[in-house]
UniProtKB/TrEMBL annotation:
Ranges of residues in domain Glycoside hydrolase family 2 immunoglobulin-like beta-sandwich: 229-330
GO CC entries: extracellular space; lysosome
Organism listed in the record: Daphoenositta chrysoptera
Stretches assigned to the Glycoside hydrolase family 2 catalytic domain: 332-633
Record EC number: 3.2.1.31
Gene Ontology biological process: carbohydrate metabolic process; glucuronoside catabolic process
Protein name: Beta-glucuronidase
GO molecular function, one term: beta-glucuronidase activity
Annotated function: Plays an important role in the degradation of dermatan and keratan sulfates.
Family the entry assigns: Belongs to the glycosyl hydrolase 2 family.
Signal peptide region: 1-25
Domain Glycosyl hydrolases family 2 sugar binding stretches: 43-227
Oligomer and partners: Homotetramer.
NCBIfam families: PRK10150.1 (NF007538)
Length: 650
């Protein structure tokens, strides 16, 4: 697929980064900003000033130093909502497919209490995500740069704002959505040199993944404060038996060596059930309420609150910091044929999703998020994969609270070219896994890491690449299994030996033998048997499905009709029902909802494999899946068999 960005000249727009002074990000915690008695947070959502750099080399903003003064003083600006993708907001077709640098700016007034005191509080600027490469200035001073479009980054801006006259804080962001063979996801810039067919300096962004490369500040931007000495990071792991759970914790503090730490674990009624002190230790909980997935327990998603309190002497002042972390007590274990949560077999009956919607693109949108969770529970889905990148923290919070199980996937999609398996790509992939685990390590909903989707794992370099990425992931977090999602032949896959669970995508009677539903039972059965015979590991059907244009009908079923989508699902389900008695541990439909892609002859306003439309209206296949998922839930639940799709959630 290719997204065009006209008018480029010279080198790839992203290569300009090599000329810029970098700020190395220090290893630190990435605790989600929360209001506490010692911390304040302020969201900066709303309208920001915006300009795309339309200069031939996309470099006018740096040459003219747009960050030195208000953006409006260096040229025209337009209003741009944050969070949102910029692509679909205007009527300008050049912005829809723009490749290169865009500039955002927001001016805010800070409370005086954030700027004064002895010691003054620490002021931090945090971005939930910005796609893809971001450089940030505050009052003209560069404070951070970050590569990667789906994970948070932040900067301590205390010295900048507390050293500036007045309380004005001008935040400037330069953002570049160019993808190269070494980004994650990868891509490439192709210059069209045939002047008889293309305008001068014309280039396109080539990508090897099937969703639109939306760009912008996609998640909330937050200013928050902490005391000058503060709780920097918390790590928890949990184990449990019939009547006793152990919460192991590790707390890091920055800013003072002389400090005291106390911890209290509270249940949902506010009762303290365990206490501890010191930076490392364990909390023992008698008769714990375990964190259970949706439909496995009458009270799914049970969360305790871990209150961490720090006191530190800094100069002549006694500082106190308080942070509260939600904690779910649960265990995960994988055998050769089962996936166990809290010692009980768990079957993934869920979906693959995208962060995608009309107008806002990949921007976080609360009404859409809540609607999607209501649809998931209506469907009887107990799980989803964050295809094909980490999702917003706000979405993950609801998974924890609702008991929706998550396969947490990195942005490693479209790794197809041999050069994307080299050391430069590998080092970046390792860094991304560190960022992802740092963010989501404490989430009970996250039961497995996925390091990639449909890479060219049949290539010989994939063996070292995935052995290294998976080993690194396990070293960072030994408590969870690790996988990647493959569409390679079972006999040729060089990465599969290193995963804990086989996740396989297949589209029999769609991309293979299109229109021939009758081949599904034979081909799907052979797929499962070949993978299991080779690796003796449990298998998830991580993608399957068919496009359907809503309202298009055909009987007998023909491709792209709602009837064909239903018929394909039923053929797959008949094989799933045989194999889930053996070693198949899950099925994830592709896709939850229709989503936008690049334009192409096989895509009519995007990918139509959703069981819901892009506007979240059900197609016929949604009702097929709903009946199936509730039936499976009733078969496997410990609850009385009176559960129906109506009695638990409407």
């Amino acid at each position: 697929a290719a997204a065009s960005g006209g008018g480029g000249a010279g080198p790839c727009p992203l290569l300009l980064l090599l000329l810029l002074p970098g700020l190395a990000a220090a290893p630190a915690g990435m605790l989600q900003p929360r209001d506490t008695p010692s911390r304040e947070r302020r969201e900066l959502g709303g309208l920001w000033s915006f300009r795309a750099d339309l200069s031939p080399g996309r470099d006018a903003g740096f040459a003219q130093r747009w960050y030195r003064r208000p953006l409006r003083q260096s040229g025209p600006v337009i209003d741009m909502p944050v969070p949102a993708s910029f692509n679909d907001i205007t009527q300008d077709p050049s912005l829809e497919n723009y490749i290169g640098w865009v500039w955002y700016e927001k001016e805010v007034l800070l409370p005086l209490r954030w700027l004064q005191g002895d010691p003054a509080p620490r002021v931090v600027l945090r971005f939930g995500s910005a796609h893809y490469y971001a450089i940030v200035w505050v009052n003209g001073v560069q404070v951070v740069e970050h590569e990667g479009g789906h994970l948070p980054f932040e900067a301590d801006i205390s010295s900048v704002v507390q050293g500036s006259p007045g309380t004005l804080c001008r935040i400037t962001v330069a953002l570049n959505n160019t993808l190269t063979p070494h980004t994650l996801p990868p891509g490439s810039i192709q210059y069209m040199t045939d002047k008889s067919r293309y305008p001068k300096n014309y280039f396109v962004q080539n990508i090897r993944f099937d969703f639109f490369n939306y760009a912008g500040i996609h998640r909330p931007v937050v200013l928050y404060t902490t005391p000058a000495a503060y709780i920097d990071d918390i790590t928890v792991t949990t184990t449990s038996s019939d009547s006793l759970a152990v919460v192991q914790y590790q707390v890091s503090v920055v800013g003072s060596t002389a400090n005291s730490l106390s911890l209290s674990l509270r249940d949902q009624e506010g009762k303290v059930v365990a206490t501890g002190d010191g930076p490392v230790g364990e909390l023992k909980v008698l008769n714990p309420n375990l964190w259970w997935p949706y439909l496995m327990h009458e009270n799914p998603g049970y969360l305790y609150s871990l209150e961490v309190k720090m006191q530190a002497q800094l100069g002549g002042a006694l500082l106190e910091d308080l942070y509260t972390l939600p904690v779910g007590i649960r265990t995960v274990h994988v055998t050769s044929s089962q996936f166990l949560i809290n010692g009980r077999p768990f079957y993934f009956h869920g979906v693959n999703k995208h962060e995608d919607a009309d107008i806002r693109g990949k921007g976080l949108d609360w009404p859409l998020v809540v609607k999607d969770f209501n649809l998931l529970r209506w469907l009887g889905a107990n799980s989803f994969r964050t295809s094909h990148y980490p999702y917003a923290e706000e979405i993950m919070d609801l998974c924890d609270a609702y008991g929706i199980v998550v396969i947490d996937e990195s942005p490693g999609v479209g790794i197809k070219l041999p050069e994307s398996f080299g050391n430069k790509s590998l080092q970046h992939h390792l860094a991304v896994m560190e960022e992802l685990i740092r963010r989501d390590k404490n989430r009970p909903s996250v039961v497995m890491w996925s390091v990639a989707n449909e890479p060219a794992s049949e290539l010989p370099p994939a063996a070292h690449y995935f052995k290294t990425v998976i080993a690194h992931t396990k070293a960072l977090d030994p408590s969870r299994p690790v996988t990647f999602v493959t569409d390679a032949n079972y006999a040729l896959d060089h990465g599969a030996p290193y995963v804990d669970v086989i996740c396989v995508n297949s589209y029999f009677s769609w991309y293979h033998d299109p229109g021939h539903l009758e081949v599904i039972p034979l081909q799907l059965t052979a797929q499962f048997e070949n993978w299991y015979k080779t690796y003796q590991k449990p298998i998830i059907q991580s993608e399957y499905g068919a496009d359907s244009v809503p309202g298009l009908h055909s009987d007998p079923p023909l491709m792209f009709s709602e009837e064909y989508q239903k018929a394909m699902l039923r053929e797959y389900h008949s094989v799933f029902d045989k194999k889930r008695k053996e070693y198949v541990i899950g099925e994830l439909i592709w896709n939850f909802a229709d989503f936008m892609t690049n334009q192409g002859t096989t895509r009519v306003l995007g990918n139509k494999k959703g069981i819901f439309t892009r506007q979240r209206q059900p197609k016929a296949a949604a009702f097929v899946l709903r009946d199936r998922y509730w039936k499976i839930a009733n078969e496997s639940s410990c609850l009385p068999p009176v559960i129906t799709s109506h009695s638990l959630f409407l």
